[in-house]
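Suppose you are handed a protein chain with no further information: no name, no annotation, nothing but its sequence. What can you learn? This example shows the usual starting point.
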Amino acid sequence: MSGLWTLEDDWWEAVEKAPLALYLHTGMRPSELWMARLWDLDLSRLEIVVSNPKGKRRSASVQEKTPIIGCGEACLRRYLELRSEALRRVGLDAKSVERLFPYISKDGNADYWNERVWRRLKVQVEIASGVRFKWKDLRPTFAQKAKDLGAPIEAFSQCLRHTRTRTTELY
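A reasonable first move is to predict its three-dimensional structure. Written in structure tokens, the prediction is:
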């Protein structure tokens, strides 16, 4: 992913590439990712807990994990390094900030991204890469990749948090 485009600010480049890598390699929905917590990500096992699944007004169980398939690991490791540096610059301890993708405001606070700002981030990715897309289009890309790698439909249907494999087949 690092060869796709380059921005002058390492932190913003990482903030733009890391969610893209996770969308492509996990099949998470936009809201599931922008609400992800730091401790949801387990790079040693190459998986992430979906702590805020769509349509459920509750936290996820430990069963709601999805693997990170493909080549997203290096991008995510670099992102975590830059995340620590960016939070340290504003006087925050990176391990105490629960958001995986903190929105660092001009006054030095770190909070969750809101949907409007997350959409603006997507526009920045489109401008920098020259490719127009929708975040939600990356879920079927993940499913197709899993299928191409030989994963059974039941496995990646579960990763997509579909209740029936028929839903996965339709999309």
